[in-house]
Amino acid sequence: MDDIAISHPSFEAAGDYRLVFETIPHMVWATNAGGELEFCNRSCCDYLGRSLQEISGEGWQDVIHPTDLAACLEKWRRSLRSGARFDVEYRLRRHDGEYRWHHGRALPLRGARGTILRWFGTCTDIDDQVRAGQRLEEAVGERTAALLESESRFRSLLALSSDWYWEQDAQFRFTAITHASAAARALVPLRLGLKRWELGFINMTEADWAAHRRTLEAHLPFRDLVLCQRDEHGAKSWVSTSGEPIFAADGAFAGYRGIGRDITLQRRAEEALRESERRFQLFMDHSPAVAWIKDGALRYTYVSEPFLQKLKKTREELIGRSDLECWPEAAAEAVRRSWHNDQVVQREGRTLQATESAPVAPQGEIHHWLSTRFPLADGSGAVGVAGTAIDITERVEAESAARQHAEEVRALLDRLMAAQESERKRVSSELHDLIGQNLTALGIWLANIANALGGGGDEKTLAQVASMQRTVEKTIEAIRGVMGELRPPELDEYGLLPALRAYAAEFQARTSIRTSVECAGALRRLPGVVEVSLFRIVQEALTNAAKHSGGTAIRVRIERQPDRLRLCVEDDGRGFPEPLGARKSRRGGWGLPTIRERAEACGGFLRIEHPGRGTRLVVEVPASDAHAH
User: Which residues contact 600 (CB under 8 A, 6 or more apart)?
Assistant: First the structure.
């Protein structure tokens, strides 16, 4: 390589120069005037692990880091064009493949006329310095970022903790006020040279200021001194200020410094909260309902005045205690139910409404309450329970009395209807036994008379006898109809369904209104009083339909449900043309009171429905089987 370098056709260096190049520890290289590599010393070849032939021409570009190559070429071409010094930092690949930073320099060699003959350059390894500089720069960047972050945190904390910073001298006169915002500046105008008690705060008395001055003169810190002033519009603004004494290096008192915060919104919120609590207390104290609030341990934290009055307790007896601690043993069962309901609300997080009964001291009278409980977080965030309750004792007692009255009325109705049915049965029997038999005997006598006269009798007499026979037969049919109305024999013998079908056939023949009786499934025998009531209901409903509906068809439908029997009578008539008529029907017009009374006497109810056409009467009664048929 030495021979090749020395004997390069375009390199004319003397032996002394070659010796100098080989002894220099730096990498030395030379190019022709066009920038093509002609020579490099042994240090260069050894470092790169390449021969001169491998890096000649543009082969040297292969050992430069790809990221640095473009910038290096740009600077090299600029130097070739201008003849200016070439100076660049780039990374070269060492023979072991590691890239290291180098400082490359090159100067042109000019001829007698100033023409550039070739370029001589060096490459110096500066990787350690560069990396040290990078580490230093990174460390400086990190420290700078940490300092900026620390300053930002300090400024943020200062802005959060206060709206302004102030200083006072040894005579307590303001010497500096730094505001965190324009709003704070408007709240506390800059008034240097004045003392705090000279700024016109309206909430401090002379005694208050005297106490504050004693603290300052004793050189003691003070905390959260609340001051109030009015703005230009007359509105109150509130500030809280804190300070600590300042001492010089020699221990002499130098003044105070501190911070101030705008607490106007806080004060207004506190006042609004107090007003809200006052209104809430006033409302609850005049409410007919009792109210309470319990914490997460189900201890009372609030009770309304009606609560205390109705339950004969004082707040001292309740606040901070649970139900288990507040009520006597006589109310143990009621307390257990209340405790259980509270736990359900806590566990399931839902509103619970329940009717509860409990004795009230001192007489131990039983009161009934309709209570509503709901979850409400207490001051610690635990799930507590709040609730209201209305004393429904009078209503419960009234309902009990009403039920008793209804039962008495129902018993009277039962007796009345039983008496009616008994009378109907008696009249029907008498009609059958007395009038019916006499009419039958009369008919037989008339038949005997007609047979005795034969063909030789007077025609006029025979005609009169025949007329009398027809009258007797019509009277017998009429009596049978009356007997059927009073007590249909099919009802006693065969049950409700056959009796209704027989009556429907007779009703259709009498009124010419198509009448059908349907039953879904087999109908078992019902108690006699129920069958009679349902039969009479259908009788009354058919009579009402014939009188008022103007329809041409009536359908009677019986549906047997597991524990109830449903009876529907529906016609295709005109229905109720006006809402007033519909309301009147529900109040019991058109003969419906009797139907309603019979349904209620059986423990059922009556409902009138208004489909698109006609009227539907629905009766539902409890059904207990007597026997099948």
Answer: 410, 413, 606
